[in-house]
Amino acid sequence: MKAKTRILLADDHPLLREALSQVFSNEKDMEIVGQANNGEEAVNLTSQLKPDILVMDIMMPKFDGLEASRQIKKIAPNTAILILTAYDDDNYVLGLLEAGAAGYLMKSARGQDLVEAVRAIRAGESVLHPKIIEKLLKQAMIKPAGTVDRKIRDILSDREMEMLKLLATGMSNKEIADKLYLSLRTVKAHMSNIFTKMTVASRSEALVEGLRTGLITLEDIKQGESSE
Amino acid sequence: MSNRWRIFHICFLTLIFLLLTLSHYHELLASIPIIGQVSIASFLGLSRYAVERFIYILLIVYAGWSLGLRFGIGTLLASGLVMLPRAIFISSTPIDSTIESIAALTIGGLGITLIQMRRGWHQQRQKLRGIRVALRTSQESYEELFTNASDAIWVHDMHGKIVIANRACEKVSGYSPDELIGKNVAEFMSRDALVIAREIRTKLMKGQAIDQRYDQRLIKKDGTDAIVELFTRLIRADGKPIGFQNIARDVTVERRLRDNLRLQIHKTLMAQEEERKRIARELHDDIAQSILLLSRQLDILISKNDSKIPKASIIELEHIENIANDAYKSLQRYARDLRPSILDQMGLVAALNWLTEELGKELRIKTSVKSDKLPPLPSEVELAMFRIAQETLNNIRKHAQASAVNITVQLTSNNLKMSITDNGKGFSTSRLTGDLAKEGKLGVLGMEERARLIGGTLQIKSEPGKGTTVIARAPIWTRQKELVPFI
């Protein structure tokens, strides 16, 4: 039996947190491992419990979701962060993604959407609109590139490199499976490995990290755009 | 001389002339006896003709004196015309008579000349007297002006020593004009004031004219400060600079009032920001969250798998959830417009992007934001810049009818410069803050104040039909001393 997805909730409004918790506890493949009341608690609990997914409100006292994200990415890089935000303004969102969020949803999103987003992130699927990804990647390129990490290049197997490049073109897991004549489960497993090796927790982070370390280039991404 | 007298003189002259001529030629007019001449002649021992010739002299001089040079000469010629024929052709002693006649004419001529010269001298002396009086009056007027002018006027030499000062200087400085003469102007100035004074002096010495008045601070006798609006001029003698003339108007009260006004505006702005922050937070934290909760609970209710709620009710509940969602979105929007968290969390450029994109979507126009790479900025600077941009874009939305808006943010040495340009219909600008307030453009005043509060400046360039550019500048690293305002 597959392990349940371990979820940590962070929101400064107790009633809302309660409602969120209800949403997830109804799902059989998910469990709530903890609840945080503010940014500081979120960081502490994450480092203690090492959840798979952190569902976090952007606006919290102590330090807000943004700052918490940055810190969490340092201490628990394999925890994917799903941010609940009040605004879906591009400029706003880019900032979130740069800080290391795997994805974002409006606070007013339906319970079902929340659940599906969590599942998608776990599966390594994209939860972001292609346009946002494009903007994010362009922005990542503007930043000075870190030194090309030889280690990662060596660690990733050829198969995984291939998959990463396909990831860059925006293909869904299913499409990748079809292309490489693999089963969906295999693809998901590979994804998981890739994320672990790159110490990221989601597809968008993998793309950003890939760009930064030089594993993928904008050309790889552009190929996807032209084929669509 | 009045006309009546002239006519009298002319008539009199003509009459005597005729009588005399008749007498002179009496033999030819034997029927008319003239007794008077004979008795005078014999009394003087002269021939009567000589006497007549003498009288001609009198006539000539009389004409010259009473009627002017021209008449004098005319009479001279007429007399000559009368006397000479008789002397040459009729007289028994032609040579003597001719000599007498010529002598008479000469004396008459001399007489006229003398009279003319005297007249000339007289006129000149009158003129001189007039000039002297005028000069004295002008000098007195100037002195009166200088002394009693309501503006303080003083002159100091190239080293700063005061040479003259008028009465008004006392009110401004606390020292009487006598006390001031001999003092050096540096005694009345603080270090910052001296800096300004030196700058002015350098400019004037270079030959640059300073047309505008500038603010300056002076230390009064009682130790307090006076703020004056000063106008300084370089004085030259023979082309060489010898000193400076200063005209000052005491504006201490005015400036205090203006500073008070600024303080008021400052306080109002701060209070406004605090209020907005508070309301935004309350909207977001309290009300929005409650509505969100409402929405979420409904959502949970609807999606419960084992729910016993009839289908029709589910549809109703979904409807209610939508309403709650919309309410939530509206609240978020109000909160954001009041105090955008994007500014606090993502920084100025992200916030500017958001502002312009919203405007672009609303008015369907092209917008762009270009920025240098910015270091983390102090939050007051970011907020001030943001509010200035927000106000500017509001004005564009309301008035400009523009089709393109561009924002540029540049970082130079230690200054941040934000330019907002639109290609709308523009407007004519007034420079004085007072005018702006009068025109009801208080938003612009607020922008100026915000810029000033962070030690920066605001400039608005616009021409009707040529669009508008708003430029806000602010120092990023503040200086220790406060800069004294200079021109």
How would you concisely characterize the structure shown here?
The complex is a heterodimer of chains A (228) and B (487). With 228 residues, chain A is of the alpha/beta class. In chain A, 57% of the residues lie in helices and 12% in strands.
Keywords, please?
heterodimer, A: 228 residues, alpha/beta, Rossmann fold, 2 domains, 5 strands, 57% helix, B: 487 residues, alpha+beta, Beta-Lactamase, 4 domains, 5-stranded antiparallel β-sheet, 5-stranded mixed β-sheet, 15 helices, 16% strand, elongated
Domains of chain A (count)? 2
Compressed to H and E, one letter per element, the order of chain A equals: EHEHEHEHEHHHHHHHH
CATH-derived topology of the largest domain in chain A:
Rossmann fold
**Biggest chain-to-chain interface with counts:** A-B, 25 and 29 residues
What is the CA–CA distance across the termini of chain A? 37 Å
Encode the helix/strand succession of chain B as letters: HHHHHEEHHHEEEHHHHEHEEHHEE
Q: In terms of structural class, how would the helical and strand content of chain B be classed?
A: alpha+beta
Mean pLDDT of chain A: 82
Q: State the fourth-level CATH superfamily of the largest domain in chain A.
A: Response regulator
- Largest beta-sheet characterization of chain B: 5 strands, antiparallel
Going across the major beta sheet of chain B, what is the strand order?
2-1-5-4-3
Q: What portion of the residues of chain A fall into strands of 2 or more residues?
A: 5-15%
Count of DSSP H/I helices of chain A: 12
